[in-house]
Amino acid sequence: MAPPEVGGLIGNLIFVLFIGVLVFGIVGRIVADRKGDDRYVREIGNRISTLLVTMGVLGLILFFFSFEQIELFGARFWYVIWVIAVVVWSVRIVRYVKRDIPDMKARSESLRARAKYLPKPKPKKKRRR
């Protein structure tokens, strides 16, 4: 339950890692929002940037607790839980990219192919006053 020493070179590297993850998440969010071409690419970018921002903030909170030597919240096992959470979240994003996006693209294509045979709604006439 003893918090790790986060001073010195190792502590600075951990701090820079968490700040870097947070900054990459913010930059990724800005870039993903400006890329309006493909909605699936934008969704992937948003999911990755959400992962990075969330884990960056949680990492900085964890680092703060370790720096202040708070026994429970600064304990070493939280770093392991943080890494496991990053891995699980990353696997879910990869599964979304590999499995879900092709299914959604196929469903969208089939709806588009079927919609060309359906009647289009008539445009509404403008009323004059």
Detail the topology: elements first, then pairings:
Blueprint: H1 8-34, H2 39-67, H3 77-115
Helix pairs in contact: 1-2, 2-3
Overall description:
Helix 1 packs antiparallel against helix 2 and helix 2 packs antiparallel against helix 3 (77-115). The chain has one domain. The model has no long low-confidence stretch (mean pLDDT 88). It has three helices and no strands. The longest helix is centred in the C-terminal third of the chain and has 39 residues, at 77-115. It is mainly α and 129 residues long.
**How far is the first residue's CA from the last residue's CA?**
77 Å
Oligomer: single chain
Low-confidence runs: none
Tell me the structural class.
mainly alpha
Q: Please summarize the sheet with the most strands.
A: none
Order of helices and strands: HHH
| Morphology | elongated
- What is the strand content? under 5%
Average pLDDT score: 88
What's the helix count? 3
Binned, the helix content reads over 70%
Transmembrane segments: 6-32, 44-65, 77-97
Keywords: Membrane, Transmembrane, Transmembrane helix
